[in-house]
Design a protein that fits this description.
The complex is a heterodimer of chains A (562) and B (61).
Chain A lengths: L4 H22 L5 H6 L6 H10 L4 H14 L5 H4 L3 H17 L5 H8 L2 H34 L3 H49 L2 H15 L29 H19 L1 H8 L4 H22 L1 H11 L8 E2 L2 E2 L4 H9 L4 H37 L5 H28 L1 H13 L2 H12 L5 H21 E3 L2 E2 L6 E3 L2 H26 L30 H18 L2
Parallel strand pairs in A: 3-5
Antiparallel strand pairs in A: 1-2, 3-4
Helix pairs in contact in A: 1-9, 1-16, 3-9, 3-12, 3-13, 4-14, 6-11, 6-13, 6-22, 7-8, 8-9, 8-16, 8-17, 8-18, 8-20, 9-13, 9-14, 9-16, 9-17, 10-14, 11-19, 11-21, 12-16, 13-22, 16-17, 19-20, 19-21, 20-21
Chain B lengths: L4 H21 L10 H25 L1
Helix pairs in contact in B: 1-2
Classes of the chains: A mainly alpha (562), B mainly alpha (61).
Chain lengths: 562, 61
């Protein structure tokens, strides 16, 4: 792939714009609270798009295309099962407590609802995880540009990190969120033409269906059901009848309920976007409005993967390239760009890749600096300083966060094993959180000791399950008692067991410890919180009716591609 | 900054114009498509950008 002058001009224009937005926002951000939390000032259409953009990192985009080629429409479960239900639960049930408690972060909600140790546990694991995730995705992006464009790893890592640093340093969360909206449009408009052209070239949807069926028929070592790639649920009856090696229960409970909800309802990275909205109503509508474009994203990021297989089946060279005894699925997106994008549009495509990387990284940086400043620095190091002091700490943390991510990127570059291991662990480290937040918000008897014991039990059970089970030849360091059909099935079942043990331990310990007095539960627990009244609003501004529409649309998508 | 629609709209107008220029300048297409996709995508982005700017203007009035 050889970008021309015009492609570099487009990329340069984009860099100027993100820096310019950061500079414009800077004039509005005058206090530490505004820098770190946006001071509840952002309109709902902006928070909604930022809400999904922060999850559209380069790794997700590249990974979804790869997964579309590997698993086909089964990948849509990560959207229609693993995301939409969680987003509905956040908007309808959980947001009133996050927003109503006036907490500045998710860990701070845990402090208000439970106690210091529960907050500390959550804040520290979250901070460590954000640094490593942003480091890993920085490395992945640098590696991709190295392979595809021949750029030096260090150049693309430092360039993208420096730009994210400048605009988050200048305008904090507001700047990150505003840029995420620009990035969202760029990602969609930059990748949609690729999806349309690839599917068109492969003979439309019927051509894709026929050709992926022929491909699967010729690869019976994966599965004996040739039409598996164009169905989401048909072959979920048994783990051996689909390529993911997951059965319907693990999918429904592990991905849909535990992992989906723990990510979309409890991960501060995304929840922070909804908390920045300018009113309680806007914060509840944020995930529900975001659900509409989210539901359609498979057309942009999964369809190209399927089309790539169809094109490969048509003997188009250079799209699905071999790697060892399998294929290099991660190169499909850029290979398709090289085949379909002329100079000009190629610049837009590359810019969209940069944009997706930056939206993911800025999300990590802004969530990290809030959690570090308020939940670690303010609670353990310097309790009673002025807002101006925390403003300064927030800015220094922004710089430190970016530097630590760069360090993590180079550390990940040292060894593939470290990276695989970290990604495996990040897959389920959040799983018990959903039990903690659910019980905390809806069962007033839950105590701080209970929540902490539950979280610790959840993580221990997850580690033990990983240690005692094997999948695809990995894991099982303590002796494999059980072997999962695939790493994905292992990941889902670890999440299920971790969630269940957190639930059980939280309840048991809560029953024998002293609950908080009712006076301290106001705005934190269902039953002691004045729920927002929206009856006087038109239906499209109320969470209830919107959630019903989102839910029905999501079910229809599942049935359509059953 | 008062309205995010202005920077977004102007960005896509510039992008659209650049793709239209690319359509007239670039003659060699990639293996599976032709340089004319620059025209169609350029027009789409130009229209998207103009709509954003119009929305911003209407919002102000």
């Amino acid at each position: 792939m050889k970008p021309g002058a015009i492609d570099y001009i487009i990329l340069g224009t984009y860099f100027l714009y993100v820096l310019g937005i950061g500079w414009l926002v800077k004039r509005r951000v005058k206090t530490g609270v505004e820098f770190l939390t946006s001071g509840h000032s952002i309109p709902v259409w902006v928070t909604s798009l930022a809400f999904i953009a922060t999850n559209l990192g380069a790794q997700e985009v590249i990974g979804m295309v790869a997964s579309g080629a590997k698993y086909g429409m089964l990948t849509c479960n990560f959207y229609w099962l693993g995301a939409i239900p969680g987003m509905i639960i956040l908007g309808v049930f959980m947001m009133p407590f996050y927003y109503g408690s006036r907490a500045r972060s998710a860990p701070e909600y845990l402090k208000l609802r439970f106690d210091e140790k529960t907050r500390g546990f959550n804040a520290i694991t979250f901070a460590v995880m954000t640094i490593f995730s942003s480091g890993i995705s920085m490395y992945a992006l640098g590696l991709l540009f190295h392979v595809v464009l021949g750029w030096k790893l260090t150049n693309s890592i430092l360039l993208s990190a420096a730009i994210v640093l400048v605009y988050t340093y200048l305008g904090g969360l507001t700047s990150a969120i505003y840029n995420e909206v620009l990035q969202f449009f760029l990602i969609v408009l930059g990748f949609a033409p690729l999806s349309i052209m690839a599917v068109w070239k492969a003979g439309g949807w019927s051509g894709v269906t026929a050709r992926t069926t022929a491909w699967m028929g010729a690869h019976s070592q994966f599965t004996h059901n040739p039409d598996v790639m164009t169905h989401t649920w048909k072959y979920m009856g048994h783990a051996s009848s689909n390529m993911m090696g997951v059965e319907w229960f693990g999918m429904l409970f592990g991905l849909g309920w535990v992992l989906g909800c723990s990510y979309w309802c409890c991960n501060f990275l995304v929840v922070q976007r909804a908390m920045a909205a300018n009113s309680m109503a806007a914060s509840r509508l944020t995930p529900l409005i975001a659900a509409f474009p989210k539901m359609l994203m498979p057309m942009v990021v999964i369809a190209p993967g399927l089309a790539a297989i169809a094109l490969h089946q048509m003997n188009v060279p250079g799209i699905l390239v071999p790697k060892g005894n399998t294929y290099d699925y991660n190169l499909i997106l850029t290979n398709l760009m090289a085949q379909f994008y002329p100079s000009g549009l190629l610049g837009v495509g590359l810019t969209a890749l940069f944009a997706s990387f930056m939206s993911g990284m800025a999300g990590n940086v802004t969530a990290f600096n809030t959690v570090f400043t308020y939940d670690i620095y303010q609670s353990y190091i310097n309790k009673n300083a002025s807002d101006a002091h925390y403003f300064k700490v927030g800015r220094i943390t922004t710089v430190a966060g970016v530097l630590l991510s760069i360090g993590a990127a180079y550390w990940a570059a040292q060894s593939n094993n470290i990276m695989d291991f970290l990604q495996l662990v990040f897959g389920f480290v959040n799983a018990p959180l959903f039990a903690t937040f659910l019980l905390g918000m809806f069962w007033r008897r839950t105590t701080g000791h209970g929540a902490f014991a539950g979280l610790v039990a959840g993580e221990i059970v997850a580690t033990l399950t990983l240690g005692f089970s094997a999948a695809e030849g990995a894991g099982g360091w303590f002796g494999a008692i059980h072997t999962f059909p695939s790493a994905m099935a292992q990941n889902f079942w670890i999440a299920i067991l971790s969630f269940m043990s957190c639930l059980v331990f939280t309840v048991l310990v809560s029953l024998v410890t002293k609950p908080k007095p009712v006076s301290e539960l106001e705005n934190l627990v269902y039953g002691y919180t004045k729920m927002p009244v929206e009856e006087h609003q038109p239906w499209y501004k109320r969470p209830g009716p919107l959630a019903v529409i989102v839910g029905i649309a999501c079910i229809l998508f599942n049935l359509w591609f059953w | 900054m008062d309205d995010l629609r202005i920077p977004i709209g102007s960005f896509f107008v510039i992008l659209g114009v650049m793709l239209l220029i690319a359509f007239f300048v670039i003659t060699s297409g990639p293996p599976l498509s032709s340089p004319s996709v620059n025209l169609w995508c350029g027009l789409a982005m130009l229209i998207f950008g103009i709509v954003m700017l119009l929305l911003a203007r209407r919002g102000k009035a």
